[in-house]
Design a protein that fits this description.
There is one protein chain. The protein is of the alpha/beta class. The two termini are 61 Å apart. Helix 4 packs parallel to helix 10. The chain folds into three domains: 136 residues, Response regulator (Rossmann fold, 3-Layer(aba) Sandwich); 146 residues, Response regulator (Rossmann fold); 157 residues, Reverse transcriptase/Diguanylate cyclase domain (Alpha-Beta Plaits, 2-Layer Sandwich). The chain has a five-stranded parallel beta sheet, sandwiched between helices. A five-stranded parallel beta sheet has the order 7-6-8-9-10, sandwiched between helices. Strands 12-13-11-16-17 form a five-stranded mixed beta sheet. Strand 16, helix 15 and strand 17 form a beta-alpha-beta unit. About 3% of the residues have low confidence. One of its GO terms (molecular function) is diguanylate cyclase activity. It is an enzyme of class 2 (transferase). It comes from Albidovulum sediminis. It catalyses: 2 GTP = 3',3'-c-di-GMP + 2 diphosphate. Keywords: Nucleotidyltransferase, Phosphoprotein, Transferase.
Length: 459
Protein backbone atom coordinates (compact mmCIF):
# COMPACT_ATOMS: atom_id res chain seq x y z
CA UNK A 1 0.00 0.00 0.00
CA UNK A 2 1.38 3.40 -0.99
CA UNK A 3 2.21 5.89 1.76
CA UNK A 4 -0.22 8.78 2.16
CA UNK A 5 1.00 12.35 2.42
CA UNK A 6 -1.19 15.22 3.59
CA UNK A 7 -0.52 18.46 1.67
CA UNK A 8 -1.50 21.60 3.58
CA UNK A 9 -1.48 24.87 1.60
CA UNK A 10 -4.06 27.61 1.20
CA UNK A 11 -3.20 28.04 -2.51
CA UNK A 12 -4.88 25.39 -4.64
CA UNK A 13 -2.26 25.63 -7.40
CA UNK A 14 0.52 24.79 -4.95
CA UNK A 15 -1.41 21.77 -3.70
CA UNK A 16 -1.98 20.51 -7.23
CA UNK A 17 1.68 20.91 -8.20
CA UNK A 18 2.81 18.96 -5.13
CA UNK A 19 0.15 16.32 -5.74
CA UNK A 20 1.46 15.71 -9.27
CA UNK A 21 5.08 15.46 -8.06
CA UNK A 22 4.18 13.04 -5.29
CA UNK A 23 1.92 10.94 -7.50
CA UNK A 24 4.81 10.45 -9.93
CA UNK A 25 6.74 8.98 -6.98
CA UNK A 26 3.79 6.69 -6.19
CA UNK A 27 2.55 8.46 -3.08
CA UNK A 28 -1.13 8.91 -2.33
CA UNK A 29 -2.10 12.43 -1.28
CA UNK A 30 -4.70 14.18 0.84
CA UNK A 31 -5.24 17.94 0.77
CA UNK A 32 -6.17 20.63 3.27
CA UNK A 33 -6.43 24.40 2.75
CA UNK A 34 -6.02 25.64 6.34
CA UNK A 35 -4.62 24.65 9.70
CA UNK A 36 -7.90 23.61 11.30
CA UNK A 37 -8.78 21.37 8.38
CA UNK A 38 -5.28 19.88 8.44
CA UNK A 39 -5.48 18.98 12.15
CA UNK A 40 -8.91 17.37 11.74
CA UNK A 41 -7.84 15.42 8.64
CA UNK A 42 -4.59 14.28 10.28
CA UNK A 43 -6.52 12.91 13.27
CA UNK A 44 -9.03 11.16 11.05
CA UNK A 45 -6.86 9.79 8.21
CA UNK A 46 -3.49 9.37 10.01
CA UNK A 47 -1.30 10.14 6.99
CA UNK A 48 2.25 8.85 6.91
CA UNK A 49 3.72 12.34 6.49
CA UNK A 50 2.50 15.95 6.37
CA UNK A 51 3.76 18.65 4.00
CA UNK A 52 2.80 21.89 5.71
CA UNK A 53 3.01 25.47 4.47
CA UNK A 54 4.37 27.90 7.04
CA UNK A 55 1.84 30.64 6.25
CA UNK A 56 -1.83 29.67 6.51
CA UNK A 57 -4.97 31.84 6.72
CA UNK A 58 -6.28 30.68 10.13
CA UNK A 59 -3.08 29.93 12.06
CA UNK A 60 0.65 29.74 11.45
CA UNK A 61 2.35 26.57 10.28
CA UNK A 62 4.43 26.32 13.49
CA UNK A 63 1.22 26.51 15.53
CA UNK A 64 -0.35 23.72 13.48
CA UNK A 65 2.80 21.63 13.89
CA UNK A 66 2.88 22.21 17.65
CA UNK A 67 -0.75 21.09 17.97
CA UNK A 68 -0.08 17.97 15.92
CA UNK A 69 2.93 17.10 18.08
CA UNK A 70 0.91 17.62 21.28
CA UNK A 71 -1.80 15.17 20.17
CA UNK A 72 -1.09 11.45 20.90
CA UNK A 73 -2.96 10.54 17.70
CA UNK A 74 -0.69 12.60 15.45
CA UNK A 75 2.55 13.25 17.31
CA UNK A 76 4.49 10.53 15.47
CA UNK A 77 3.60 11.79 11.99
CA UNK A 78 6.66 13.51 10.46
CA UNK A 79 6.02 17.11 9.46
CA UNK A 80 7.95 18.83 6.67
CA UNK A 81 7.32 22.56 6.41
CA UNK A 82 7.60 24.71 3.31
CA UNK A 83 7.90 28.49 3.11
CA UNK A 84 8.51 31.11 0.45
CA UNK A 85 10.09 33.50 2.99
CA UNK A 86 13.74 32.86 3.74
CA UNK A 87 13.36 33.88 7.38
CA UNK A 88 15.85 32.17 9.67
CA UNK A 89 13.87 33.02 12.82
CA UNK A 90 10.74 31.45 11.31
CA UNK A 91 12.73 28.36 10.37
CA UNK A 92 14.01 27.90 13.92
CA UNK A 93 10.48 28.47 15.25
CA UNK A 94 9.22 25.70 12.97
CA UNK A 95 11.96 23.30 14.06
CA UNK A 96 11.22 24.03 17.71
CA UNK A 97 7.54 23.29 17.06
CA UNK A 98 8.54 19.78 15.97
CA UNK A 99 9.07 20.02 12.22
CA UNK A 100 11.53 17.45 10.90
CA UNK A 101 12.60 19.74 8.06
CA UNK A 102 11.93 23.22 6.70
CA UNK A 103 12.35 23.86 2.97
CA UNK A 104 12.59 27.24 1.35
CA UNK A 105 10.99 27.66 -2.05
CA UNK A 106 11.81 26.87 -4.77
CA UNK A 107 12.31 23.28 -3.65
CA UNK A 108 14.65 20.90 -5.39
CA UNK A 109 12.40 17.95 -6.32
CA UNK A 110 15.05 15.26 -5.90
CA UNK A 111 16.05 16.60 -2.47
CA UNK A 112 12.41 16.82 -1.35
CA UNK A 113 11.68 13.24 -2.38
CA UNK A 114 14.89 11.98 -0.78
CA UNK A 115 13.96 13.72 2.47
CA UNK A 116 10.50 12.18 2.39
CA UNK A 117 11.99 8.73 1.84
CA UNK A 118 14.39 9.26 4.75
CA UNK A 119 11.65 10.35 7.15
CA UNK A 120 9.30 7.55 6.13
CA UNK A 121 12.06 4.97 6.63
CA UNK A 122 12.73 6.32 10.12
CA UNK A 123 9.03 6.26 10.96
CA UNK A 124 8.61 2.70 9.70
CA UNK A 125 11.54 1.53 11.84
CA UNK A 126 9.55 2.33 15.00
CA UNK A 127 6.13 1.45 13.64
CA UNK A 128 7.13 -2.13 12.80
CA UNK A 129 7.08 -2.86 16.54
CA UNK A 130 3.78 -1.08 17.07
CA UNK A 131 5.50 1.65 19.06
CA UNK A 132 4.46 5.26 18.85
CA UNK A 133 1.43 7.27 17.93
CA UNK A 134 -1.94 5.74 18.60
CA UNK A 135 -0.79 2.26 17.74
CA UNK A 136 -1.05 -0.40 20.45
CA UNK A 137 2.36 -1.54 21.70
CA UNK A 138 3.19 -5.21 21.59
CA UNK A 139 2.64 -6.65 25.11
CA UNK A 140 5.92 -6.74 26.99
CA UNK A 141 7.73 -4.53 24.48
CA UNK A 142 6.45 -1.07 25.39
CA UNK A 143 8.91 1.77 25.53
CA UNK A 144 9.97 2.63 29.06
CA UNK A 145 9.63 6.16 30.33
CA UNK A 146 12.88 8.09 30.01
CA UNK A 147 14.60 9.17 33.17
CA UNK A 148 17.20 11.91 33.57
CA UNK A 149 19.29 12.23 30.44
CA UNK A 150 22.92 13.21 30.85
CA UNK A 151 24.46 15.48 28.22
CA UNK A 152 24.94 13.74 24.91
CA UNK A 153 28.18 13.39 23.02
CA UNK A 154 28.54 15.00 19.61
CA UNK A 155 31.49 14.36 17.31
CA UNK A 156 32.36 16.99 14.71
CA UNK A 157 34.08 15.12 11.89
CA UNK A 158 36.22 17.20 9.57
CA UNK A 159 39.73 16.97 8.08
CA UNK A 160 40.23 20.65 8.97
CA UNK A 161 41.03 20.90 12.66
CA UNK A 162 40.74 24.70 12.70
CA UNK A 163 37.22 24.55 11.28
CA UNK A 164 36.20 21.84 13.72
CA UNK A 165 37.49 23.77 16.74
CA UNK A 166 35.77 26.98 15.60
CA UNK A 167 32.49 25.13 15.17
CA UNK A 168 32.85 23.50 18.57
CA UNK A 169 33.37 26.89 20.21
CA UNK A 170 30.26 28.25 18.49
CA UNK A 171 28.11 25.25 19.44
CA UNK A 172 29.37 25.20 23.04
CA UNK A 173 27.51 28.46 23.61
CA UNK A 174 24.25 26.92 22.37
CA UNK A 175 24.28 23.40 23.87
CA UNK A 176 25.28 21.56 27.04
CA UNK A 177 26.27 18.45 25.11
CA UNK A 178 29.89 17.31 25.08
CA UNK A 179 31.56 18.01 21.75
CA UNK A 180 34.71 16.41 20.35
CA UNK A 181 36.50 16.99 17.07
CA UNK A 182 37.63 14.00 15.00
CA UNK A 183 39.03 13.38 11.57
CA UNK A 184 37.68 10.63 9.28
CA UNK A 185 40.18 8.01 10.47
CA UNK A 186 39.42 8.59 14.15
CA UNK A 187 35.67 8.45 13.52
CA UNK A 188 35.95 5.08 11.78
CA UNK A 189 38.35 3.71 14.39
CA UNK A 190 35.88 3.96 17.24
CA UNK A 191 35.30 0.68 19.04
CA UNK A 192 31.94 -0.56 20.21
CA UNK A 193 33.59 -1.29 23.57
CA UNK A 194 34.39 2.39 24.11
CA UNK A 195 32.35 5.59 24.12
CA UNK A 196 30.71 6.19 20.75
CA UNK A 197 29.21 9.61 19.98
CA UNK A 198 25.44 9.87 20.00
CA UNK A 199 25.55 12.17 17.00
CA UNK A 200 28.15 12.64 14.26
CA UNK A 201 28.18 16.05 12.62
CA UNK A 202 30.13 15.45 9.42
CA UNK A 203 31.31 18.53 7.56
CA UNK A 204 31.39 17.98 3.81
CA UNK A 205 34.27 19.71 2.08
CA UNK A 206 33.42 21.18 -1.30
CA UNK A 207 36.56 19.72 -2.89
CA UNK A 208 36.08 16.18 -1.54
CA UNK A 209 32.34 15.34 -1.34
CA UNK A 210 32.88 11.70 -2.33
CA UNK A 211 35.02 11.16 0.78
CA UNK A 212 32.16 12.41 2.95
CA UNK A 213 29.68 10.03 1.29
CA UNK A 214 32.09 7.12 1.80
CA UNK A 215 32.46 8.08 5.45
CA UNK A 216 28.67 8.23 5.84
CA UNK A 217 28.29 4.78 4.32
CA UNK A 218 31.03 3.40 6.59
CA UNK A 219 29.50 4.89 9.75
CA UNK A 220 26.16 3.34 8.86
CA UNK A 221 27.70 -0.10 8.21
CA UNK A 222 29.90 -0.44 11.32
CA UNK A 223 28.45 -1.93 14.53
CA UNK A 224 30.07 0.73 16.72
CA UNK A 225 28.37 3.66 14.97
CA UNK A 226 25.38 2.02 13.31
CA UNK A 227 22.86 3.40 15.79
CA UNK A 228 24.37 6.87 16.13
CA UNK A 229 22.67 9.76 14.37
CA UNK A 230 24.62 11.19 11.44
CA UNK A 231 24.07 14.78 10.30
CA UNK A 232 25.84 16.33 7.35
CA UNK A 233 26.92 19.96 7.28
CA UNK A 234 26.68 20.77 3.57
CA UNK A 235 28.04 23.59 1.45
CA UNK A 236 25.54 25.41 -0.76
CA UNK A 237 27.21 23.79 -3.77
CA UNK A 238 26.32 20.25 -2.65
CA UNK A 239 23.46 20.01 -5.16
CA UNK A 240 22.35 16.46 -5.96
CA UNK A 241 24.83 15.03 -3.44
CA UNK A 242 22.41 16.05 -0.70
CA UNK A 243 19.75 13.64 -2.00
CA UNK A 244 22.35 10.87 -2.32
CA UNK A 245 23.45 11.48 1.28
CA UNK A 246 19.89 11.02 2.54
CA UNK A 247 19.50 7.78 0.63
CA UNK A 248 22.81 6.55 2.09
CA UNK A 249 21.44 7.02 5.59
CA UNK A 250 22.05 10.60 6.71
CA UNK A 251 19.55 11.53 9.43
CA UNK A 252 19.63 15.25 8.72
CA UNK A 253 21.18 17.76 6.35
CA UNK A 254 22.25 21.13 7.68
CA UNK A 255 23.16 24.15 5.61
CA UNK A 256 26.81 24.97 6.20
CA UNK A 257 25.83 28.64 6.57
CA UNK A 258 23.20 27.91 9.25
CA UNK A 259 23.62 29.81 12.53
CA UNK A 260 24.88 27.87 15.59
CA UNK A 261 21.41 28.06 17.17
CA UNK A 262 19.86 26.11 14.29
CA UNK A 263 22.69 23.56 14.20
CA UNK A 264 22.40 23.01 17.96
CA UNK A 265 18.62 22.62 17.69
CA UNK A 266 18.88 20.05 14.91
CA UNK A 267 21.54 18.11 16.81
CA UNK A 268 19.32 18.16 19.90
CA UNK A 269 16.41 16.73 17.90
CA UNK A 270 18.58 13.94 16.52
CA UNK A 271 19.94 13.19 19.99
CA UNK A 272 16.38 12.87 21.36
CA UNK A 273 15.39 10.53 18.51
CA UNK A 274 18.52 8.45 18.98
CA UNK A 275 17.90 8.07 22.70
CA UNK A 276 14.33 7.04 22.09
CA UNK A 277 15.48 4.45 19.55
CA UNK A 278 18.00 3.17 22.12
CA UNK A 279 15.21 2.78 24.69
CA UNK A 280 13.06 0.90 22.18
CA UNK A 281 15.93 -1.49 21.35
CA UNK A 282 16.64 -2.03 25.04
CA UNK A 283 12.96 -2.63 25.75
CA UNK A 284 12.75 -5.09 22.88
CA UNK A 285 15.85 -6.97 24.03
CA UNK A 286 14.50 -7.12 27.59
CA UNK A 287 11.13 -8.33 26.33
CA UNK A 288 12.71 -11.08 24.28
CA UNK A 289 14.83 -12.13 27.24
CA UNK A 290 11.82 -12.24 29.57
CA UNK A 291 9.85 -14.26 27.03
CA UNK A 292 12.32 -17.15 27.37
CA UNK A 293 13.29 -16.72 31.04
CA UNK A 294 11.66 -17.96 34.22
CA UNK A 295 11.04 -14.73 36.18
CA UNK A 296 11.65 -16.32 39.60
CA UNK A 297 14.87 -18.28 39.10
CA UNK A 298 16.38 -16.53 36.08
CA UNK A 299 16.82 -19.88 34.35
CA UNK A 300 15.37 -20.51 30.90
CA UNK A 301 11.72 -21.49 30.81
CA UNK A 302 9.96 -24.41 29.15
CA UNK A 303 9.17 -22.39 26.02
CA UNK A 304 12.89 -21.93 25.38
CA UNK A 305 14.18 -25.23 26.74
CA UNK A 306 12.28 -27.73 24.62
CA UNK A 307 13.19 -26.32 21.17
CA UNK A 308 16.76 -25.72 22.35
CA UNK A 309 17.01 -29.28 23.61
CA UNK A 310 15.90 -30.54 20.20
CA UNK A 311 18.58 -28.41 18.51
CA UNK A 312 21.24 -29.68 20.91
CA UNK A 313 20.24 -33.30 20.28
CA UNK A 314 20.33 -32.78 16.50
CA UNK A 315 23.77 -31.15 16.71
CA UNK A 316 25.06 -34.04 18.84
CA UNK A 317 23.82 -36.57 16.29
CA UNK A 318 25.52 -34.74 13.45
CA UNK A 319 28.83 -34.55 15.33
CA UNK A 320 28.62 -38.11 16.66
CA UNK A 321 28.84 -37.00 20.30
CA UNK A 322 26.72 -37.81 23.34
CA UNK A 323 24.18 -35.51 24.96
CA UNK A 324 23.29 -35.97 28.64
CA UNK A 325 19.72 -34.98 29.59
CA UNK A 326 18.53 -34.85 33.20
CA UNK A 327 15.12 -34.21 34.67
CA UNK A 328 15.42 -33.01 38.28
CA UNK A 329 12.69 -32.64 40.89
CA UNK A 330 12.86 -31.31 44.45
CA UNK A 331 11.88 -33.92 47.03
CA UNK A 332 8.86 -33.17 49.25
CA UNK A 333 8.76 -29.56 48.08
CA UNK A 334 5.12 -29.20 49.14
CA UNK A 335 6.23 -29.71 52.73
CA UNK A 336 8.46 -26.65 52.48
CA UNK A 337 5.55 -24.50 51.28
CA UNK A 338 3.23 -25.93 53.94
CA UNK A 339 5.72 -25.51 56.78
CA UNK A 340 7.33 -22.17 55.93
CA UNK A 341 5.03 -20.50 53.35
CA UNK A 342 5.29 -19.82 49.65
CA UNK A 343 7.92 -17.09 50.08
CA UNK A 344 10.18 -19.73 51.59
CA UNK A 345 9.39 -22.06 48.71
CA UNK A 346 10.39 -19.34 46.24
CA UNK A 347 13.66 -18.81 48.13
CA UNK A 348 14.41 -22.54 47.85
CA UNK A 349 13.79 -22.53 44.10
CA UNK A 350 16.03 -19.50 43.62
CA UNK A 351 18.87 -21.06 45.63
CA UNK A 352 18.59 -24.42 43.87
CA UNK A 353 18.77 -22.62 40.52
CA UNK A 354 21.89 -20.80 41.70
CA UNK A 355 23.55 -24.08 42.70
CA UNK A 356 22.59 -25.62 39.37
CA UNK A 357 24.27 -22.80 37.44
CA UNK A 358 27.36 -23.02 39.65
CA UNK A 359 27.88 -26.67 38.67
CA UNK A 360 27.31 -26.39 34.92
CA UNK A 361 29.46 -25.27 32.01
CA UNK A 362 28.59 -22.17 29.96
CA UNK A 363 27.30 -24.31 27.07
CA UNK A 364 25.08 -26.49 29.26
CA UNK A 365 21.35 -25.83 29.36
CA UNK A 366 19.44 -25.38 32.62
CA UNK A 367 15.73 -24.59 32.67
CA UNK A 368 12.78 -24.61 35.03
CA UNK A 369 10.05 -26.55 33.25
CA UNK A 370 7.49 -26.89 36.06
CA UNK A 371 6.78 -25.85 39.63
CA UNK A 372 9.77 -27.58 41.24
CA UNK A 373 10.99 -29.45 38.18
CA UNK A 374 14.11 -28.63 36.19
CA UNK A 375 15.83 -29.96 33.12
CA UNK A 376 19.59 -29.97 32.42
CA UNK A 377 21.26 -30.79 29.11
CA UNK A 378 25.02 -31.22 28.84
CA UNK A 379 26.44 -31.62 25.30
CA UNK A 380 29.55 -33.67 24.54
CA UNK A 381 29.21 -35.54 27.82
CA UNK A 382 29.79 -39.29 27.91
CA UNK A 383 27.61 -41.51 30.14
CA UNK A 384 30.23 -41.81 32.90
CA UNK A 385 30.83 -38.06 33.01
CA UNK A 386 27.08 -37.46 32.91
CA UNK A 387 26.56 -39.65 35.99
CA UNK A 388 29.36 -37.80 37.78
CA UNK A 389 27.78 -34.43 36.88
CA UNK A 390 24.36 -35.54 38.12
CA UNK A 391 25.81 -36.74 41.42
CA UNK A 392 27.70 -33.46 41.84
CA UNK A 393 24.49 -31.48 41.34
CA UNK A 394 22.61 -33.72 43.78
CA UNK A 395 25.29 -33.26 46.47
CA UNK A 396 25.45 -29.49 45.89
CA UNK A 397 21.74 -29.22 46.70
CA UNK A 398 21.84 -31.66 49.65
CA UNK A 399 25.00 -30.52 51.46
CA UNK A 400 23.97 -27.07 52.69
CA UNK A 401 20.55 -26.04 54.02
CA UNK A 402 18.81 -23.17 52.27
CA UNK A 403 18.52 -19.94 54.23
CA UNK A 404 14.88 -18.76 54.29
CA UNK A 405 13.59 -15.16 54.39
CA UNK A 406 12.38 -15.49 58.01
CA UNK A 407 15.83 -16.58 59.21
CA UNK A 408 15.05 -20.30 59.37
CA UNK A 409 16.74 -22.83 57.14
CA UNK A 410 15.46 -25.81 55.22
CA UNK A 411 17.35 -28.86 54.06
CA UNK A 412 16.25 -29.93 50.58
CA UNK A 413 17.20 -32.78 48.27
CA UNK A 414 16.88 -33.59 44.58
CA UNK A 415 15.87 -36.70 42.70
CA UNK A 416 17.38 -36.95 39.23
CA UNK A 417 16.59 -39.02 36.17
CA UNK A 418 19.35 -39.26 33.54
CA UNK A 419 19.07 -40.29 29.89
CA UNK A 420 21.57 -40.12 27.05
CA UNK A 421 20.83 -38.55 23.68
CA UNK A 422 22.74 -37.56 20.59
CA UNK A 423 24.85 -40.38 19.16
CA UNK A 424 24.15 -42.46 22.28
CA UNK A 425 20.41 -42.72 21.58
CA UNK A 426 18.92 -44.57 18.64
CA UNK A 427 15.57 -42.76 18.69
CA UNK A 428 15.49 -39.48 16.71
CA UNK A 429 12.75 -37.99 18.93
CA UNK A 430 13.68 -35.65 21.75
CA UNK A 431 10.28 -36.45 23.30
CA UNK A 432 11.43 -40.04 23.71
CA UNK A 433 14.64 -38.81 25.34
CA UNK A 434 12.76 -36.65 27.83
CA UNK A 435 10.33 -39.46 28.55
CA UNK A 436 13.25 -41.79 29.32
CA UNK A 437 14.74 -39.23 31.74
CA UNK A 438 11.32 -38.69 33.30
CA UNK A 439 10.78 -42.42 33.86
CA UNK A 440 14.25 -42.63 35.42
CA UNK A 441 13.27 -39.76 37.72
CA UNK A 442 10.15 -41.64 38.76
CA UNK A 443 12.30 -44.61 39.78
CA UNK A 444 14.52 -42.28 41.83
CA UNK A 445 11.40 -41.10 43.65
CA UNK A 446 9.93 -44.55 44.26
CA UNK A 447 13.26 -46.03 45.38
CA UNK A 448 13.89 -43.54 48.17
CA UNK A 449 14.46 -40.08 46.64
CA UNK A 450 17.70 -38.02 46.79
CA UNK A 451 19.40 -40.20 44.20
CA UNK A 452 20.36 -40.39 40.54
CA UNK A 453 18.81 -43.04 38.33
CA UNK A 454 20.08 -43.70 34.83
CA UNK A 455 17.58 -44.66 32.16
CA UNK A 456 17.86 -48.34 31.31
CA UNK A 457 18.07 -47.47 27.63
CA UNK A 458 21.24 -45.44 28.40
CA UNK A 459 22.78 -47.84 30.82
Amino acid sequence: MAERILIVDDIATNRIVLKVKLASAFYETLQAACGGEAIALARQARPDLILLDVELPDMSGPEVCARLKADPLTREIPVVMVTARQDEARRIESLRAGAAEVFWKPIDDSLLLARLRSLLRARDAGAQFGIGGAMCPVPGFGETEPGFDAPGQVAIVTPRLDRGLALRRALARATADRIVVLDDTAALGLSAAGPVPDVFLVAMEADRPEATLRLLSDLRSRPASRHSAVCLLLPRSAGSLAAIALDLGADDLIDGAAPPAEIALRLSCQLARKRRADRIRTSLADGLRLAVTDPLTGLHNRRYALPQLARMDEAARRSGTALAVMVLDLDRFKAVNDSFGHAAGDAVLVEVARRLRANLRPDDLAARIGGEEFVVAAPETAPGAARTLAERIRRAVEELPVRLPNGDSARVTLSIGLAMGGAAQASPSVDVLLDAADRALLRSKTEGRNQVTVSRSAA
